[in-house]
Structure prediction request, 836 residues.
Amino acid sequence: MKRTKLFTALMAVGLLCQAQAQDDNLFTPVVQTELRAPSVPLVTSDPYFSIWSPYDKLYDGITTHWTDAEYPLVGAVRVDGTVYRFLGKVNLETLLPMAGMDAWEGAYTFQQPEGQWTETDYDDAGWKRGKGAFGTREQQAVGTEWTTEDIWVRREFTLDQVPQKDVWLKYSHDDVFELYLNGEKLVATDYSWNNNVRLKLSEQAVKKLRKGKNVIAAHCHNTTGGAYVDFGIFVPNSQTAAYERTAEQTSVCVLPTSSYYAFTCGPVELRVVFTAPVLMDDLDLMSTPINYVSYEARSLDKKQHDVQLYFETTPQLTINEPTQPTEARTLRLGGLEYVTAGSIDQPYTERRGDQVCIDWGYLYLTGAGRQSDVCLGDYNRTKAVFAREGRLPQGESKRVTRRAQDLPAMAYADNLGRVSAEGRSGFLMLGYDDVYALEYMFQRRMAYWKHGGRVSIFDAFERARDNYASVMQRCRDWDRMIMDDARRAGGQKYAEICAAAYRHVIAAHKLFEDEQGNLLFFSKENNSNGCINTVDLTYPSAPLFLCYNPELLKGMMTSIFEYSASGRWNKPFPAHDLGTYPVANGQVYGGDMPIEEGGNMVILAAAIAKMEGNAGYAKRYWDLLTLWTDYLAENGQDPANQLCTDDFAGHWAHNANLSIKAIMGVAGYAEMARMLGMDEVADKYAEKARQMAVKWEQDARDGDHYRLAFDRPGTWSQKYNIVWDKMWGLNIFPNNVIEKELAYYLTRQNTYGLPLDSRKEYTKSDWIMWTAAMSSDRETFQKFIDPLYKYVDETTSRVPISDWHHTDSGQWVSFRARSVIGGYWMQVLMQKMQER
Prediction:
C-alpha cells in the first residue's frame, strides 16, 4: 500500500525525527550492559503475549513463547538485492510430519524390548500400532494415550530421494528422552520437558539416511506428571533459500524496557530495538498490549545503498494447538493498514492451565515506516517475492487455515530507498487484543487499558503511532532511572541483572478493574502450576512494585482481602490463590499455607504503609489483618508440619525461617497500629514480637549459625524473612542474628550462588537477593551478587531467567518467566527506605 495522507502529514511536522532530537539516538542504549540474558525479551505484555529469543544471536533459532511454544518472528533486510536474515528462522518444509501437522503412525510398546530395537531391520511385529503423538491426554495433539512410566516407539518411513544436506530433526518430549535414526543415537536428555526442539543433523547423521526404508526409534521415561513423545524431519524450502544468509550480529544490550541489537549486513549497519513501554507510572501505557520494533539502516562505506526491511509473523501466535483453525485478514482504519489473525472458535478464557498459550483474541501487525506495506499471503511465496523484488506481493484480503503447516505469512515491509551514512529509520507495531482478559468472580473482565470497552485496539494503535516519539523517550528515561537506582544501590552487575529481569516481571501479570473500580493486578504462576494471583508469588515479587508503584502491589492483595471479606474464604489465614489462570473464582490449590500466606499479607500491608508513610490501605482491612496476625502470634513461634514456599526438598515442622515470617508479621502489625494512633495495640504486639524473637534466637542457635528447623542440629537455611527487621530498623532479633548468618552463608556459597538450605545444592535466586540486601556494606553484598551474575550470564538453560537453579552447574531445576524475580529489587527498596 502507498503511504497514507495522515502519515505524510505526520512526516511534514517531523514526528519521526522528534525522538532523535529529544535524545542522542534512540537506537543507542542509554546504558551499555555486558550481561548475556539467558533468553532475550522481544515482545512482552502479559503471560500470553510474550515472545523471547533464547539464543546468543537473534537469528540462531525460532523465537518462542516462554513455554517453548514456537512464536515465530522473522526479520530480514535486503541490501542492493542481497537478503540478510537478522531475526528468527524461516519455517522448514516437512519431510516427516509431527502430530498436528499430519497424522502419523508408529509401533510402540510399554515393555522393555529385547534385542537391537533401534536398528532398521528389527522385527517389531509384536508391538502395538498407534497414532502419534504419544502421551497423556492433557498434552497437545495426542493420538495414542501413554500413562505408564516408559514407552518405546518405532516410526518407519520411506525416502524416494535422500536429502544431501541441511536436514533437521524436530522433537518434543516429557521427560527423559532418547532418539535414534537408523540405529545412531542423536538425542539423549536428562529430566526435562521441551517442545519443538530443532536439531540440525550432522553430516554423519545425514549419511545414515537411505533410499527406501528408514526408522526413527525413541524411548521416553516419565518420572511424574504429564508424558509426551513426538518427532519429525524437516528440510529447507527452495523458495526461501535467500534467507539462509544471516547478518552478522555485532552487539546486544538488554535494558528494562528495550532490547537493542546491531548487525552488519554487507555494506550496511542495521540497528533494531524491541520496546515494551511497560512504565509503572502510566497504567494505561503499561497495560496496553502493543510493542514497538524500531529499526535504522545506515551505510558503512560512504556509498548509498538500496535497502528494504522485511518483518513477519504468523497466526500461530493466536492458537494453542496446531490443529486449531485460524482466520487472518487485512484491513485499513484510522490511517493504518493492519494484517490481523485469530482462532475461529474464540473460546474466551476457557483454556486454563500452566504451560498453555492463548487461543482467543486477535493479533495485529501494522507499521509506520517511510514507505511501508503489510501483506497477508502464502508463507513461502511472500518471502520469495520480497527477496527477488524488494517488495511484498499482492496479498489476500482473507485466509482461513486448519493446519499449522498451512499458516500464511503476516508480513510488513518498508522500502527505505537509498540509504547513506546518515541513515533512515522507521518502526512497526505488534499488538494483541484478547477482547476479554480473564474471568474474575464468575464474570469475564476486560483488560485495564480498554476501560470497559470504551477504548478499542484501533484507538490504542493510533495513540501508539501518534505518541511514538514521546513514548520512546519516556522509555529511555525510565531505563536510565531503573539502572541508576540499581547501580547506586548495588553496583553495575546488580543493575544489569535487574535490567534483564524487569520486563520478565511485568509480563507475568495482567491489569484490570473489578466491578467496584478496584485496581487488580494478577500474576500467573508460570511454569509451576498455573495458579492465578498466588500470594506466595506476590510476596517475593513485591520489592519492585514497592519501589515504583505500590498501587500495583495493592492490586495483587485487594482481591485476597475481598475473597475473605466475602465469606467465601473463612479460615483464619489468607487463601493461597484465586484459581487457575485466567479464571479467578476461588482457591484451587490442594493445600493451605497458613503461616506462609498470613505472614505474607500482613508483612506486605506493613511494607506498603512504611513506603507510603500511612496505614490507610491497611485500615480498610483491619479486621482481617488482626485475625491473621493473631493466628501468627498463636501458631508462628514454632510452626507445625505445614507447607511453606521453600519446601522443594520436603516440608519440615519447626521451620525457623517460617517462624521469622510470623514474627515479622506480628511486628509489622504493631507498626501499622502505631501509624493508626492505636498505641496500646501497637505496644502489645510489638512486645509480643520481641518476645518471640528472643525465644527464636535461643531455639534456632546452632553454634556459628542458626538452624533450618529448631529440632534439627547441623542444618541451616537462608533466613531472608528477617530482612524486614533490618529495613524497618526494629532490631527485635538479639545477638546480631543477621551478621552471624551472613558470615556463615559466605562459607556455603557455590560457583553459581548460595544454596537455599543444607538439604540440596539448588537455590532460589529471589531469596539470594533478599539475603544479600541484609549486608552491612557493598563489599559483602557483592560477594552474593557475583555468583548470581555468573549464573545468569553462563547458564546453559536458555529460558527467561529461572529463579530455581543448581548452584554447582548453573542449570535450571525448573521455573521460568515467573514474577518472583521482582524480588531482585530488594536492595533498591532497602536504599529507598533508608533514604526516607
